[in-house]
Amino acid sequence: MLELFDVSRNFGGARAVDGVSLRVAGGRITGLIGPNGAGKTTLFNLIAGSMPPSSGRIVLDGREIAGAAAHTRLAAGLARTFQIPRPFGAMTVLENVLLAAQGQHGEQPFANWFSPRAVMAQERRNAEQAREIIAFLALERLVSAPAATLSGGQRKLLELARVLMASPKIVLLDEPAAGVNPTLLETIIDRIATLNARGLTFLIVEHNLDLIARLCTEVHVMAGGKLLVSGSPDAVTRDVRVVEAYLGA
Amino acid sequence: MIGIVSYLLFFVTVALSYGVAVLGLNVQWGAAGLFNVGVAGFAAVGAYVCAWITAAPADSHWGGFGLPIALGWAGAMAAAAGVAAIVGAATLRLRADYLAITTFGAAVSLQLVALNAQTLTGGPFGIAFIPRPFSALADQPLAFAAANCALVVVVTGLLFVGLERLTRSPWGRVLRALREDEAAAAALGKAPATFRLQAFVIGAALMGLAGAMQAQFFGFIAPDNFLPAFTFQVWVMLVLGGSGNNFGALLGAVLTWALWTGSGTLVSILVAPEYQSRAASLRVVAIGVVLALVLLLRPRGLVGERPTVSRGIG
User: Fold this and answer.
1) pLDDT tens-digit profile of B95-142?
2) Domain limits at B28?
3) Mind telling me how many Å the CA of A142 is from chain B's nearest CA?
4) Angle of CA points B272, B273, B274, to nearest 5°
5) Taking a C-beta distance cutoff of 8 angstroms, is the pair B188, A74 a contact?
6) How far is A232 from chain B (nearest CA, A)?
7) How close A92 gets to chain B, by Cα (Å)?
8) Residue B286: inside a domain, yes or no?
9) Do the chains contact at A95 and B180, CB–CB below 8 Å?
10) A100 interfacial to chain B (CB closer than 8 Å)
């Protein structure tokens, strides 16, 4: 589904990502872990399109996407969340989710004057779908609340809701467990598993090894900008090179 | 009595013609957060294009096609939109401050062109005898003023309704999202440059229309009408009324224009004739003081932005 071939990124003289090649299989949950400074976040940003790689290819469903602007990723089927959630605080939860719908007629300014009925009909359909997604993510009580009033964990759920509204094929999750209380974390883990059972592919960057072990079938470990080991969660956490990388030995 | 009524009607006519420009700025700044410091330039483009299209042929300037006023207004909007598309396409991908620099430079350049390209624009003498709407009524001052006022009220009303609909549309929602967090909106598939350019062009088209309306109601335009002071006035109107609120934009236009004309009248009554031309600068001071007071006491304007609920999901 998603393939990286020899992807590198330099910042001045420093090589944050150094020749990484990996595959994310369709329909699976793949983890990306590593100690601080390993280059995980940079690699994540390269895949999400926040910055172009210095060299290498990123291929999604056979299409080269490296270098294309961030806003074109979603049309290609790739969605992302942010490590620190970025809700549109002045908008309600419902409007945050509605915003993410793709192919809205009403995003053409003139359509709102010249074909308002088509715009409204689509808006109502989208709102219905958005409410279902919001309910699925246990936010239905907050549907009309301004997003700024949500707690940290609820914001993570809202990020996921927005991304789902866009019907992506693959979702990149940037530390979904960071700053979330244990109860909400269970909700997040449960929903990710449910969505995956319905066929959605995930790539998760995470520090929380418990979450990785419970969700992922394959894990890639990065250290010093390079891919260190790939394998099942069990195998990589027992791997002596991984232990050394985490302990800084 | 008739004199006062027709004066009031003319006051509303001019105030609302400014209001149209303020509505345009509200699309750019209020909705999209685009800092346009060249409002006068877009109004000038609209005014001159409208004059060329509608005026009778004359030796003193280019154009003079004597076409209907509606065509003049449409041409003015199209021309201002075209200039905005060029300026916007060149700068909207860059950091926000470049737009301010570029729009200011473009407006000053356009004003200098109007001043110096005498064969096109009549130079410092401007273009006179621009036909006024309802000129058949010109010998009945009250009916003439009332018809013009009704026209501008209807046009402004239509624009107000149309813009309110846009504010509450999916398009308006994307603009609010981009204003709040561009990276997050882009991650949701929204192309920042496209939406900004649309807002910039729509806003500029309204500024062009405002310029055309003023050319038509005054019957005369000159480069001096489009100095940076015009841009300043339109900005004060928006900030005073409430940025992000279309009603606030119109309210600010009427109140600021009242302050401007009212302080002018006061100066002419209170100041000895030989000092009046210098005392006229006090009007700018008065506007500045009111602006400072509003920013201190009601920083969001008289009626600030309200939470927006999209149509169809309420």
Assistant:
1) 778 999 999 999 999 999 999 999 999 999 999 999 999 988 888 889
2) 2-225
3) 15
4) 95
5) yes
6) 30
7) 9
8) no
9) no
10) yes
**Inter-chain touch B183–A70, beta carbons under 8 Å:** yes
Q: Is B303 inside any structural domain?
A: no
What are the backbone angles phi and psi of residue A221, rounded to the nearest 5°?
A: -110, 125
Which A positions 209-248 lie with beta carbon below 8 A of chain B?
none
In this complex, do A73 and B311 lie within 8 Å of one another by their Cβ atoms?
no
Q: Pull the structure tokens for residue B44.
A: 């000038």
Tell if the CB–CB gap between B186 and A127 is shorter than 8 Å: no
Q: Is a pLDDT exceeding 80 seen at residue A218?
A: yes
User: Does the CA dihedral B114-B119-B124-B125 come out positive or negative?
Assistant: negative
A173 has a chain B CB within 8 A of its CB: no
* Distance of alpha carbon A81 from alpha carbon A90, whole angstroms: 19
Give the tens place of pLDDT for each residue, A139-177: 999 999 999 999 988 999 999 999 999 999 999 999 998
Which chain B residues touch A99 with a CB distance below 8 Å? 170, 173-174, 177, 185, 188, 190
Interface contacts A/B by beta carbons within 8 Å? 107
Q: Is B106 left (phi over 0), alpha (psi -120 to 50) or beta?
A: alpha
So where are chain A's domains?
A: 2-87+166-247, 88-149
Nearest CA-CA distance, residue A56 and chain B, Å? 22
Asked if A90 has any chain B CB less than 8 Å from its own CB, the reply is yes
The H-or-E segment that residue B80 falls in is: helix B69-91
**CB-CB under 8 Å, A91 with B176:** yes
Q: How far apart (Å, rounded) are the C-alpha atoms in residues B142 and B1?
A: 10
SS3 sequence of chain A: CEEEEEEEEEECCEEEEEEEEEEECCCCEEEEECCCCCCHHHHHHHHHCCCCCCEEEEEECCEECCCCCHHHCCCCCEEECCCCCCCCCCCEHHHHHHHCCCCCHHHCCCHHHHCHHHHHHHHHHHHHHHHHHHHHCCCHHHCCCEHHHCCHHHHHHHHHHHHHHCCCCEEEEECCCCCCCHHHHHHHHHHHHHHHHCCCEEEEECCCHHHHHHHCCEEEEEECCEEEEEECHHHHHHCHHHHHHHHCC
* B166 in any annotated domain: yes
Provide the number of structural domains found in chain B. Answer: 1
Say how far apart CA A241 and CA B93 lie, in whole Å.
Answer: 45
Q: Which residues of A touch B176 (CB under 8 A)?
A: 88, 90-91
Q: For residue B248, is it within any domain?
A: no
Longest Cα separation, chain B: 64
Report d(CA A201, CA A16) in Å as an integer. Answer: 26
> Would the CA dihedral through B47, B50, B52, B54 be positive or negative?
negative
| B138-161 tens-digit pLDDT | 888 899 999 999 999 999 999 999
**CATH superfamily, with its number, for domain A2-87+166-247:** P-loop containing nucleotide triphosphate hydrolases (3.40.50.300)
Nearest-by-Cβ selection for A107 from B162, B174, B192: B174
| pTM (two decimals) | 0.92
